[in-house]
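Final report, closing paragraph on structural work. Over the funding period we assembled a curated collection of sequence-structure pairs, and we close with a single example.
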Amino acid sequence: MLFRAATLLLSLLIAVSFFSCGKDKSSEEEIREYFATIEKHMESRNAGRVKKHISDTYRDKYNHTKRDLIRIAAGYLIRHQSVHLRHHIVVMDLDENDTRANITIDVAVSQEPLSENDLRLLRADFHRFKVILEKEREWLLQSLVWQRLSANEFMTGMEGFPPTKN
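Its predicted structure, as stored:
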């Protein structure tokens, strides 16, 4: 149950990060900024800000709703005094109208700060999320599925990607 809660919390993190949408930015840039924003909200222990970045029609394969996701994130933050995240986007596929995105993103979650050089040494949990976003006025999380990754899988996926920065 705790693992499931942590995973769903990460889902919320992903949803919140999709918030910063500038008018002069490409959809790819908006999505990258959105993920960075989610990281900031979660690391600052502010699950409430995630809510507006999840579609009211959110539904995942576990039959969780938007409300369920918010509760899980809040519960995770209550149980963990410190949350540190590091992510990298593995795949980003946008439809021809740039209104729907299928994204695969790998996320490391730790109670200690994460750096690009010592991820294997930390007690981090590693997850891969397959996310569907739709853009109305802004990007909103529609659905996601997840799986656990090993540290090696996470590190292998980082090769060739610049590190994310807060």
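The beta strands are 84-94, 100-110, 125-135, 139-149. The chain has four helices and four strands. We thank the funder for supporting this effort.
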